[in-house]
């Protein structure tokens, strides 16, 4: 099956393109947000192809996976195809509502021409999707292997744009933790934190994914400070590496980190105490990390994720073509 999708969320897409389909990514001259093409800091297979906007209309697309409301208009402008009418469509929602938590209408609410997929049950619960058919397909991750060593008595954090996303990303909690706990932070634009954190805090921008995993694996534990995110893939990846995790108990994190795999709480003081304890006890960190890896492989394994998406795309493709054939027969 040929799937048209935009490069929006690198870690999620890295798992998605491991499937058995042909994945088409729009590419413009600037590699802008609407035409990034293939990822350049993640490892993607050859079946993930970038296609220039000039050639995109020549591609025979079987299904389109939308991730932003504006992509419907881009699809029609660049290919002449209407999502849900001329080509079967899925809308993938990565995020929690940005407006009132329990009352925000989803941009795809009350649609009967596409399926709305949420990456967590929490997302589906909080969005008002109206009558649109919905499914939950939880994250899957490519297993980086049990690479955690924890030799550095430091807490690792992965967060993109921590200054712009201050309270949403829990950056204020990260800054508070770093005052008393040796911390290293990785991600996009993390060097903007300089001046907010203590001089001993390590800040590393834009490492390729494999290098990021190797660096993060040397930290004693992983800290997940996000207040309002669907479910950070960095949390799941850290668990899969065998890292013990310390996480704010918000959104889907309590489901993702069961007892015995880490410490989850809404009280920053509890999380800070856990960080100090794990820095002092490598054996406890190893025990928690081993349990975290076993759980993550079972819950967020790549095979389960790809099978669920393959089933959905097959259903959507079949239903979409049945509807199209019926309309053409009238």
Secondary-structure blueprint:
Blueprint (H helix, E strand, L loop, with lengths): L1 E4 L4 H7 L5 E6 L20 E5 H4 L6 E4 L4 H9 L9 E5 L21 E4 L2 H6 L7 E3 L15 E7 L12 H8 L4 E5 L14 E4 L3 H8 L2 E6 L8 H8 L4 E4 L4 H4 L5 E4 L2 H13 L1 H18 L2 H28 L1
Parallel strand pairs: 1-2, 1-4, 2-3, 4-5, 5-6, 6-7, 8-9, 8-11, 9-10, 11-12, 12-13
Helix pairs in contact: 7-10
Short descriptors:
Rossmann fold; 330 residues; 11 helices; seven-stranded parallel beta sheet; single chain; 34% helix; 2 domains
Q: Could you characterize what this model shows?
A:
The chain is of the alpha/beta class and 330 residues long. It folds into 2 domains: 2-140 and 302-329, Rossmann fold, CATH 3.40.50; 152-299, 3-Layer(aba) Sandwich (Rossmann fold), CATH 3.40.50. It contains 11 helices and 13 strands. The protein has helices at 10-16, 53-56, 71-79, 121-126, 171-178, 209-216, 233-240, 253-256, 268-280, 282-299, 302-329; strands at 2-5, 22-27, 48-52, 63-66, 89-93, 115-118, 134-136, 152-158, 183-187, 202-205, 219-224, 245-248, 262-265. The chain has a 7-stranded parallel β-sheet. Helix 7 packs across helix 10. The protein is globular. The mean pLDDT is 94.
């Amino acid at each position: 099956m040929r799937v048209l999708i935009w490069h929006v969320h690198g870690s999620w897409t890295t798992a998605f393109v491991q499937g058995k389909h042909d994945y088409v990514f729009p590419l413009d001259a600037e590699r802008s947000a609407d035409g990034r093409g293939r990822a350049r800091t993640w490892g993607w297979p050859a079946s993930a192809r970038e296609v220039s906007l000039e050639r995109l209309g020549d591609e025979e697309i079987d299904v389109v996976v939308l991730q932003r409301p504006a992509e419907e208009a881009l699809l029609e402008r660049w290919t002449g195809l209407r999502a849900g009418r001329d080509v079967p469509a899925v809308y993938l929602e990565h995020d929690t509502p940005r407006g009132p938590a329990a009352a925000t209408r989803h941009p795809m609410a009350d649609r009967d021409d596409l399926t709305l997929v949420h990456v967590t049950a929490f997302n589906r619960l909080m969005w008002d999707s109206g009558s649109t058919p919905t499914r939950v397909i939880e994250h899957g991750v490519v297993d980086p292997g049990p690479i955690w060593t924890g030799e550095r008595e430091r807490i690792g954090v992965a967060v993109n744009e921590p200054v712009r996303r201050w309270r949403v990303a829990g950056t204020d909690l990260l800054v508070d933790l770093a005052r008393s706990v040796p911390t290293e932070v990785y991600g996009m634009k993390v060097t903007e934190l300089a001046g907010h954190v203590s001089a001993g805090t390590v800040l590393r921008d834009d490492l390729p994914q494999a290098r990021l995993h190797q660096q993060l694996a040397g930290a004693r534990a992983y800290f997940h400070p996000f207040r309002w995110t669907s479910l950070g893939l960095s949390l799941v990846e850290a668990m899969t590496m065998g890292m013990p995790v310390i996480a704010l108990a918000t959104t889907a994190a309590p489901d993702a980190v069961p007892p015995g795999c880490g410490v989850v709480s809404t009280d920053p003081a509890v999380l800070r105490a856990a960080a100090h304890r794990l820095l002092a006890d490598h054996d406890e960190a190893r025990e928690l990390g081993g349990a975290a890896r076993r759980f993550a492989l079972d819950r967020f394994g790549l095979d389960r994720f790809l099978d669920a998406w393959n089933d959905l795309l097959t259903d959507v493709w079949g239903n979409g073509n049945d509807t199209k054939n019926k309309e053409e027969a009238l």
